[in-house]
Amino acid sequence: MPWLAEEFGGARLWAAGQDLASLARLVDVVMPMTYSFMTGSSAGHIAALCDELRTTTGKPVMPSLQADNTYREGELPMAAVEQMLDEVERSSDGGYSVFHLESLADRPELRRLLASRAPA
Fold this sequence. Notes:
6 helices, mainly alpha, 120 residues
């Protein structure tokens, strides 16, 4: 879930059933839904979530970059994508995923941004 442990009265555990200490024994990497724009959080929320998950699980973290304006009206602003990408890159222990990958098909400026920031 894209929530910190204390958000929404601890809903990550009681509503979503995500007991990270237990899940950590079953996985090699944690891939959180770091969709800050979708949830109305700041891009800095991405780093806070990744740090918490890394500390809680002891596992490497591979965040997601929100690339579509899911659940909100209008197009996702490129400035917001760039802010989120900055945080995703800083917070990753080895890459990131793109959500929704299909959104890249209609946004050449988004493809160019990601290509310009790809590791050599």
